[in-house]
Amino acid sequence: MGVAINGAIEQGLLFAFLALGVYFTFRILNFPDMTADGSFALGGALAAKLIIGGWNPVTATLAAMVVGAAAGAFTGLLTTKGKINGLLAGILTMNALYSINLRIMEKANLPLLREDTFYTMIQSLHIPGIGVISGEAIIFLVIVLLVKLIMDWFLHTDLGLDIRATGDNSKMIRSFGANTDRTTIIGLALSNAMIAMSGAFIAQYQGFADVGMGIGMIVIGLASVIVGEVLFGSRSIFRASLAVIGGSIVYRLVIAVALRAGFNPSDLKIITALIVIIALTLPNVAKGIWKKSSKAAKGGKLDA
Amino acid sequence: MLNIRQVRKVFNAGTVNEKIALQEINLTMAPGDFITVIGSNGAGKSTLMNIISGGYLPDQGTIEIDGKNVTKLAEHQRAAFIGRVFQDPMAGTAPNMTIEENLAIAYARGHRRKLALGVNAKKRKIFQEQLALLDQGLENRLKTKVGFLSGGQRQALSLLMATFTQPKILLLDEHTAALDPKRAQLIVDLTVKIVEKNKLTTLMVTHNMEQALTMGNRLLMMHEGRIILDLPQEKKQQMTTKDLLQAFEQARGGEAFAEDRFILA
Q1: Statement: residue A47 has pLDDT above 90
Q2: Where does the secretion signal sit in this chain (chain B) (predicted)?
Q3: How would you list the strands of the sheet with B201-205, edge to edge?
Q4: Pick from B76, B93, B101: which is nearest to A174 by CB?
Q5: What does DSSP say about strands B218-223 and B226-232: parallel, antiparallel, or unpaired?
Q6: B118/A199: higher pLDDT
Q7: Position B239 confidence tier, pLDDT thresholds 50, 70, 90
Q8: Domains annotated on chain B, with CATH
């Protein structure tokens, strides 16, 4: 179990970039961005291809981020300039990316055996771990927190305030001179850069990129966001982005426990869906029960 | 300051639902003019506001603000010149952002948004001074999310956000209509105070005839997309709400609908 927890924490930290990206679109920009499945695999595919081609893993990961940002910007252009419904715009990009990812990889699966990856670089540093937290996890944590802090800072700049207001009240922010088309495109680009970064890291971590590696990533990201918010709160941006990282780790731990309990890896998608459904409905159900019990306490006389 | 020439706007042109919202409107506002606009539902008051703000583009005609032709500019491009307060207290502020963050957005009006912190010590001091003018105790609640404020407080904040960067034109779209009488009076008083202090060129739509007569220096009455009455200060001062109602019925060709009486009373 110790090894499983170790791995779950490492994965949780690498998937936290995905969760931060999903948090950015779904919560900050209030945009249901379906690009994520495509941009995650895009990040993995491009990083793997470049590493095999002899690129430094760090520059390969950065390149994956840039291309992820372009994918997000494309969805943004479809929905703002092309006036395509936001959900559909994301789905269209996601679909198109599947073909693009296959073009990049030239086959469905790219193994990174004996390649120098970001992960092997960190492993070679032999950083001592602390308890269940491995030395590698410590490095991952540092990078995640760095990205989180940059995101927190960015969302408090003038441009960041505009992006947040675009998600909060787009009519209002237009009346103050912000171009909401521009803020939407920038927001989607930044979000998908983080998601592609997550894909690039995961490919290097697991030692291969697969064309199907992005399937279900939106739901996993959402699960992390929702679980994190429920468990750790979301009063401020600083708190919420920390909660999202925590949510990503908790999600991986739950999955590790589920696998331990005898579920098949193929069952993970339905487990993830159930986690999201429970986390979303539980507050309402709990409210209903509380209402009923308070009614009962008052003798059941109140109707409303 | 504002010059509207032959502006026409038709919705759903060529369909059974065709609606001529504005018919060849001409309107000139001198700097410092405070015009109140009344008219029944569907008269074109809100369309006029949206045509000025850039929410709608006119089918024909030109709009100039301070000598600059803005007819083809989008809403966010015109925002540098125009401050606006909406009827819905929820519309003018971002509820999940704090008071100081909302003010920072308003403060950036007319500037290019940069990658510098939106709220800093210097700006915070300005915000506190400005909020103190509202007399709502908001200057001590800079980090409160706007969603926690009452409708009246949000509208007061909206008014401040729309005005403290001294826009060329201030548009008030029935901005007291959604408030209870006490709060509405408070916002009216604040409006007069702020407009006078900053000498803002203001266009205010209202359903309240009393407000239309007591506030501002000029009164417009609209009906079916036209300006049917334009009262300068001297005439306006002598009028009562009853006179105004009569003038309205006359201008409409004598047809007096109890419905309109109710709306305008």
Answers
A1: yes
A2: none
A3: B82-85, B169-173, B201-205, B34-39, B218-223, B226-232
A4: B76
A5: antiparallel
A6: A199
A7: confident
A8: 2-94+150-264 (3.40.50.300)
The nearest CA of chain A is from the CA of B66 a distance in Å of 18
Residue B249 is predicted with a pLDDT of: 79
Of A157, A164, A176, the CB nearest to B115: A157
Calculate mean pLDDT across residues B223-252. 84
Average pLDDT over residues A191-202: 98
pLDDT confidence of B255, banded at 50, 70, 90? Answer: low
Predicted-assembly ipTM surpassing the 0.90 threshold: no
Spell out the residues 6+ positions from residue B230 whose beta carbon is closer than 8 angstroms to its own. B218, B219, B220, B221
DSSP string, A84-138: --HHHHHHHHHHHHHHHHHHHHSSSEEE-TT---HHHHHHTT-PPPBTTB-HHHH
Length of chain A: 304
Q: pTM score > 0.90 for this model?
A: no
Per-residue confidence (pLDDT) for residue A1, from 0 to 100: 59
A 165-204 residues with CB below 8 A of B?
A: 165, 168-169, 171-180
pLDDT at B112 over 90: no
The DSSP secondary-structure symbol of A28 reads I
Distance (Å, whole) CA A20 – CA A25: 9
Using the predicted structure, report yes or no on whether residue A101 has a pLDDT greater than 90. yes
Q: What is the rounded CA–CA span in Å between residue A233 and residue A239?
A: 7
Is A240's Cβ below 8 Å from some Cβ in B?
no
Residue % of chain A over a pLDDT of 70: 94
3-state secondary structure chain B: CEEEEEEEEEECCCCCCCEEEEEEEEEEECCCCEEEEEECCCCCHHHHHHHHHCCCCCCEEEEEECCEECCCCCHHHHCCCEEEECCCCCCCCCCCCEHHHHHHHHHCCCCCCCCCECCCHHHHHHHHHHHHHHCCCHHHCCCCEHHHCCHHHHHHHHHHHHHCCCCCEEEEECCCCCCCHHHHHHHHHHHHHHHHHHCCEEEEECCCHHHHHHCCCEEEEEECCEEEEEEEHHHHHHCCHHHHHHHHHHHCCCCCCHHHHHHHC
Nearest to B50, CA basis, from B11, B14, B15: B11
How far out from the chain centre does Cα A199 lie? 10
The per-type count for chain A, helices as H runs and strands as E runs, is 12, 2
Q: Taking 80 as the threshold, does the pLDDT of residue B263 lie above it?
A: no
Residue A218's pLDDT is what?
94
Mind telling me how many Å the CA of A182 is from chain B's nearest CA? 11
